[in-house]
């Protein structure tokens, strides 16, 4: 959204016109047509002979969209029910990672931190009971498989 605002503000001097254009571009991107937005920006950049800071801002937006278009399949993500806003990810990072790893005075090895974070994810996802059962079965097999095989 920041790059859309950057480009549309550079294209339209009128604030209302810039907002309408931003809405149009955002809707187009959410429909999975980021290439259409890139093409439109390039055409308007050339057609309107934009120069200076405004040109730099539009080129910056074009570069961003071109570099990230493979990841901007928002139509597919929305259809699959995936969140597309970063707030969900940032919240998860704060809840799962920062709250545990950021304890004052704590020191973590990479292996230890990864283990703790995996367990926190299992707990947060509601799969704790299932995990415990699978873990118990795996440990039983690991520790006693020789004895169990001989007894059978």
Short descriptors:
elongated, mainly alpha, 152 residues, single chain
How would you explain this protein's 3D organization?
The chain is an all-alpha fold and 152 residues long. The chain folds into 2 domains: 2-79, no CATH class; 86-151, no CATH class. Helix content is 78%, strand content 0%. The chain contains 8 helices and no strands. It has helices spanning 2-11, 15-30, 34-47, 52-68, 74-79, 86-101, 110-125, 128-151. The chain is elongated.
Shape: elongated
Give the SSE string. Answer: HHHHHHHH
> End-to-end span in angstroms?
64 Å
As for the number of domains, it is 2
Largest sheet: number of strands, sense, barrel closure: none
Discrete helix count: 8
Write the layout of secondary structure elements.
Layout (H helix, E strand, L loop, with lengths): L1 H10 L3 H16 L3 H14 L4 H17 L5 H6 L6 H16 L8 H16 L2 H24 L1
Helix pairs in contact: 1-2, 1-4, 2-3, 3-4, 6-7
What is the gist of this entry?
By secondary structure, the protein is mainly alpha-helical. The chain contains eight helices and no strands.
